[in-house]
């Protein structure tokens, strides 16, 4: 019943958003415009500005189920709504309000300058961050975001910047490193086609770039350059993800379980926070596509079941793509050596 109610609420909000946009489009961009509006109808324009700069952004934010609503996201959508209003509303009606989009863009520029200031502060404190990372017995994948938060602060733009630095490190500067080995390390990818799958994607992107770039370049230089940059970024991301998977096996250290699947998914689980672990068929029959379960299963050409599912006493945060985080109550894991992992972790749980 809850799922039905959520779906109904989603479609109601979507209908209201479409109604707001469509009604304003009909009002200003159809043959009825001269019949219902005159050059003195300022209050109608004010109502449209409220629709596009306040109502529509709020509806969009409420449609993003499960994502945190922030002041910055609202301001960004508000500025976008005002710019759209400036394009939609004819100049004869919008002339008294020309300063509003300019002021909104100025506000967005101030926010961008503040974020740039945070990045400069991060660069200023980089030596201290590097020393702190070197003092920690953790992989860079887990330690960099902690170091940034500890030395500078918990800001979204810094977490995104740190995530991009991690990606570039694994893509460009980690080739001399070897995967750690020992009784506390458990790989997740060797018995899968994870690396082969990403290499195939990289080849496809390179071939697509070479084949299509020059064709699009003749039509639009800007679009071809944008596509080239995006393809280059995607290739770097896939290379970094491959290296992150290779160099960061599941690790048990100081009664904590460090688990990751590439750059975009990692989690630290204290062993005392584990309520139980289900194995075998019971774990394989568990539904993984739920909001409370995070999956650490290597990419393959076919869907593979987990070897075990760790159930937690309370939801714990996992770091996701671009530095964002989300809390989960369960973690589904597929290992190369499930029996060795079970023999190692079970005594610790019993103690």
Automatic annotation (TrEMBL):
<protein>
    <submittedName>
        <fullName>Beta-carotene 15,15'-monooxygenase</fullName>
    </submittedName>
</protein>
<keyword id="KW-0472">Membrane</keyword>
<feature type="transmembrane region" description="Helical">
    <location>
        <begin position="195"/>
        <end position="216"/>
    </location>
</feature>
<feature type="transmembrane region" description="Helical">
    <location>
        <begin position="12"/>
        <end position="30"/>
    </location>
</feature>
<feature type="transmembrane region" description="Helical">
    <location>
        <begin position="99"/>
        <end position="124"/>
    </location>
</feature>
<keyword id="KW-0812">Transmembrane</keyword>
<feature type="transmembrane region" description="Helical">
    <location>
        <begin position="221"/>
        <end position="240"/>
    </location>
</feature>
<feature type="transmembrane region" description="Helical">
    <location>
        <begin position="74"/>
        <end position="93"/>
    </location>
</feature>
<keyword id="KW-1133">Transmembrane helix</keyword>
<feature type="transmembrane region" description="Helical">
    <location>
        <begin position="42"/>
        <end position="62"/>
    </location>
</feature>
<feature type="transmembrane region" description="Helical">
    <location>
        <begin position="155"/>
        <end position="175"/>
    </location>
</feature>
């Amino acid at each position: 019943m809850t799922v039905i109610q959520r779906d109904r609420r989603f479609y109601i909000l979507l209908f209201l958003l479409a109604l707001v946009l469509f009604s304003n489009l009909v009002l200003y961009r159809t043959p009825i415009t001269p019949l219902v509006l005159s050059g003195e109808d300022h209050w109608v324009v004010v109502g449209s500005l409220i629709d596009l700069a306040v109502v529509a952004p709020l509806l969009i934010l409420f449609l993003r189920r499960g994502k945190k609503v922030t002041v910055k996201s609202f301001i960004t959508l508000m500025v976008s709504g005002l710019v759209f209003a400036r394009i939609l509303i004819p100049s004869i009606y919008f002339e008294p309000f020309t300063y509003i989009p300019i002021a909104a863009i100025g506000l967005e520029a101030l926010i961008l300058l503040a974020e740039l200031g945070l990045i400069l502060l991060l660069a200023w404190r980089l030596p201290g961050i590097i020393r702190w990372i070197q003092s920690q017995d953790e992989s860079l994948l887990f330690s960099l975001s902690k170091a940034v938060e500890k030395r500078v602060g918990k800001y979204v733009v810094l977490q995104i910047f740190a995530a991009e630095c991690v990606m570039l490190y694994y893509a460009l500067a980690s080739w001399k490193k070897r995967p750690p080995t020992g009784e506390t390390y458990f790989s997740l990818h060797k018995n899968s086609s994870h690396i082969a799958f990403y290499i195939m994607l990289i080849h496809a992107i390179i071939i697509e770039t070479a084949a299509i770039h020059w064709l699009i370049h003749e039509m639009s230089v800007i679009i071809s350059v944008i596509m080239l940059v995006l393809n280059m970024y995607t290739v770097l991301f896939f290379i970094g993800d491959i290296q992150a998977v290779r160099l960061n096996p599941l690790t048990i250290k100081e009664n904590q379980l460090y688990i990751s699947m590439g750059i975009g998914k990692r989690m630290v689980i204290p062993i005392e926070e584990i309520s139980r672990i289900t194995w075998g068929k019971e774990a394989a029959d568990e539904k993984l596509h739920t909001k409370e379960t995070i999956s650490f299963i290597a990419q393959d050409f076919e869907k593979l079941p987990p070897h075990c599912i760790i159930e937690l006493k309370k939801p714990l945060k996992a770091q996701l793509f671009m530095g964002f985080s989300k809390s989960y109550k369960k973690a589904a894991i597929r290992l190369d050596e499930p029996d060795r992992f079970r023999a190692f972790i079970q005594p610790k749980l019993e103690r």
